[in-house]
Design goal:
heterodimer, A: alpha+beta, Alpha-Beta Plaits, 2 domains, five-stranded antiparallel beta sheet, B: 573 residues, alpha/beta, Rossmann fold, 23 helices, 20 strands
Chain lengths: 168, 573
């Protein structure tokens, strides 16, 4: 019941200076965990939308939502825990010091995980993954074991509510 | 329409908001605002001696009048000096609007002279903070600031004003309405939840009201008293809630918590329904969380959603303004049969009444008893420490007597500036501050403000030559190793405490008061207490400083150790 687990929130916030700092400051000041945080503007240029992943227990998560709601700059907080959402994270992995066998393996991995090989060097490859953060975690783990030198950049999850059954 | 500068618009805005008094300290970045204030006579400007005290003055002005306190300070050090006062106001939910000067926009980020990112520095201790980046936003931002500061759970708002934005000409319009899409304070009361809570109240055998500062902030004292009368449910308060119901009321038991009365903490321990209003269950009242109110279901009414179930898990949460909720409750409640429960509480009160040991020499309780008996109407302002707890325990707070203090943050140095702010807001009411000798010295420069503003405040110093509350902990829990708490210690006795004669205490508060142009009285014996207050009462324009010589061995009892439980309660030495 009181389990620590990963949870996601989506926030509509004012697109103003200092808002990101206010939100991230709330998390650090109150010792809440941020697993990832993404932010970008919406169709309305005065509003930004954030997707935040946090690892917390039930009580802390309730507090996080309340504390966020209380900020003047936060327009709306949506809890993604119990609703259907579409959520993906972009991730680049550069594999360096590749042998020809490594390269073949990279292509196999790309095919399996529906990734793209988007750049190619003498002894290196660049892969692009767009999938859930959990799958990206698994890929990182796998590639770290398989290759000597890899370089990882992740974008953090972005999510949106699914279109409901009624609308489909 | 004729265009006006931002400075002019700001002063116009103050008038529109009905700000008759501001607390300000000038500087290069706000000199143009000072100039505009010079040209008008609606808003009175108080000039304290230090920005740290300035915020406390605005804060106490706001707490004692219900208006919004307004501060104006310059950039850089002027702004950073606000930090402690902003946090003080934030923790006690005091509505403040603080204007800080800022360097011109093209200099921001250059480490310019007297430039700091004050909005960034104060982000976690303000309800809202913003830099005005465009002249056309100024009116709207100021309007929003006043609205945010005083609505919902009140709090301090900071507006940073770059000098060039303020000089720019623009619209003279000050908006009349606000519309902030991310800020909609709760209004109304959820009747379903309230009825659920009242059903529990009706069923409870040992119900107890726990009242916090929220009831005082909502000015719900009268309706709450009516509620207690009607239901016959006993009442405990936090120190911030003291005065929600007269301390002389037969249903009032006292304060709970670390230095709460025995009967109060027993009542919380034994009650089967804790009906709490306007409190955030701070650790100083709950002690160890899992043994707090172990037999009780908990109802919690608070204006701040985030205050509910933050520290204590509650059974019935109700988000509402205290006054609105209590007024609604009055429509449904009836008298409950609490006779037996009240008898039990009375027994606890008899078992360990709240009183200091009677001694031939003067005790803090003697002084506070004299205040209780000699003043029919007053505002009491405390500093932070033992004297604060003595006041919270023994001061009578009634319809005509109120108590102000830094409860949440525990800011030493609040007492004297607090009394000044309260007196400026309530010129016809006697204002008495109670400070320790430590806290008094943190803002003693404000005696100059009090003298020049002709404020006949009565400033009591409980001088025990020590930082008494910390010393108390050292005496009880640290083997009497009095590290850093003796205010007489210095080079002459370093490492030789007890072997050499103690250095002479400094300052001489009586002489100091006199040098400021205030009256100074030293009280060393019980018999001198009343004459000193009689003398102070005569003053109509001059502040009186009364120094009481207090025994450092007078400790605040009862005491529950930090993080402790009821079983750890120390009744007395």
């Amino acid at each position: 019941m009181n389990s620590m687990k990963k949870r996601w929130l989506s926030l509509y916030v004012e697109n103003q200076d200092g808002v990101l700092s206010k939100i991230s400051g709330l998390f650090s000041g109150k010792s809440y965990n941020i697993d990832s945080l993404t932010v970008g503007t919406t169709e309305d240029p005065t509003i930004s939308r954030m997707t935040i992943a946090t690892v917390s227990d039930d009580e802390t998560f309730e507090q996080i939502k309340k504390q966020l709601n209380r900020l003047v700059e936060v327009i709306k907080v949506i809890d993604f825990t119990n609703i259907f959402v579409r959520m993906k994270e972009i991730m680049y992995i550069k594999v360096q010091k590749c042998t020809p066998e490594d390269k073949v393996e990279c292509f196999q991995i790309a095919e399996t995980f529906k990734a793209k090989v988007i750049d190619y060097g003498k002894d290196s490859l660049l892969l692009e993954f767009v999938q859930t953060a959990t799958k990206n975690d698994a890929v990182v783990k796998l590639m770290k074991e398989e290759f000597k030198v890899i370089e990882v950049v992740r974008g953090g999850s972005v999510g949106i509510e699914s279109i409901s059954m009624m609308e489909r | 329409m004729k265009k006006i500068s931002g400075n002019k618009l700001l002063v116009k805005a103050l008038r529109e908001e009905g700000v008759d008094t501001i607390f300000g300290y000038p500087g290069a970045c706000t000199i143009d605002i000072s100039d505009e204030l010079y040209k008008q006579d609606y808003t009175k400007v108080i000039l304290p001696r230090q920005e740290i005290a300035l915020v406390h003055e605005a804060d106490a002005y706001a707490r004692s009048t219900g208006k919004t306190g307004v501060c104006l300070v310059t950039s850089g050090p002027g702004a950073t000096n606000l930090v402690t006062g902003l946090a003080t106001a934030y923790y006690d939910s005091v509505p403040l609007v603080c204007f800080t000067g800022q360097v011109a926009r093209h200099l921001i980020g250059n480490d310019a002279f007297q430039e700091v990112d004050i909005v960034g520095i104060t982000r976690s201790i303000t309800k809202y903070g913003v830099v005005v980046k465009r002249r056309e936003d100024l009116g709207r931002i100021v309007k929003e600031a006043f609205y945010i500061a005083r609505s919902g759970r009140p709090g301090p708002v900071l507006i940073d004003l770059p000098k060039d934005v303020m000089a720019e000409l623009g619209s003279p319009e000050y908006p009349t309405e606000v519309n902030i899409r991310g800020y909609r304070p709760s209004t109304g009361v959820h009747i379903g939840q309230l009825k659920r809570a009242l059903k529990m109240l009706a069923k409870a055998k040992r119900p107890l009201f726990l009242v916090g500062g929220g009831v005082n902030i909502a000015r719900a004292n009268e309706v709450f008293t009516e509620l207690a009368d009607k239901t016959q449910v006993p009442v405990v308060t936090t120190v911030m809630g003291r005065g929600a119901i007269s301390t002389k009321h037969p249903l009032y038991i006292g304060n709970l918590g670390m230095h709460g009365a025995y009967a109060c903490n027993m009542a919380v321990n034994e009650c089967d329904l804790l009906f709490s209003i306007g409190t955030r269950f701070n650790d100083r009242i709950t002690g160890k969380l899992h043994s707090f109110a172990p037999r009780a279901q908990i109802v919690h009414i608070d204006i701040d959603t985030a205050a509910i179930s933050k520290n204590v898990q509650v059974d019935v949460p109700i988000v509402a303004d205290a006054k609105e909720a209590i007024e609604k409750m009055l429509e449904y409640v009836e008298e409950y049969h609490t006779g037996k429960w009240l008898e039990q509480i009375e027994e606890w009160q008899k078992e360990h009444p709240l009183a200091m040991k009677k001694k031939p020499i003067m005790t803090p309780q003697d002084v506070i008893t004299a205040i209780n008996e000699m003043f029919e109407e007053c505002i009491l302002v405390t500093d932070v420490g033992q004297h604060q707890m003595f006041t919270a325990q023994f001061a009578e707070i009634t319809e005509k007597k109120r108590l102000l203090m830094s409860g949440g943050l525990g800011t030493m140095g609040y007492g004297l500036p607090g009394a000044i702010g309260a007196k400026i807001g309530n010129p016809d009411t006697t204002v008495i501050s109670v400070s320790g000798d430590g806290g008094m010295q943190m803002n003693i420069q404000e005696l100059a403000t009090a003298v020049l503003e002709e404020l006949p405040i009565i400033s009591c110093i409980f001088n025990n030559n020590n930082l008494g509350m910390v010393r108390q902990w050292q005496k009880l829990f640290y083997g009497k190793r009095y590290s850093m708490t003796c205010l007489r210690s210095g080079a002459a006795c370093r490492g030789k405490c007890g072997e050499v004669e103690c250095p002479k205490y400094t300052p001489d508060f009586v002489k100091l008061a006199e040098s400021y142009g205030a009256k100074g009285i030293r009280v060393t014996k019980k018999e001198e207490i009343r004459p000193a207050f009689e003398e102070a009462k005569k003053s109509t324009k001059t502040p009186t400083v009364i120094e009481f010589e207090i025994d450092p061995e007078d400790l605040v009892y009862p005491m529950i150790q930090p993080g402790g439980t009821l079983e750890d309660m120390i009744i007395d030495s």
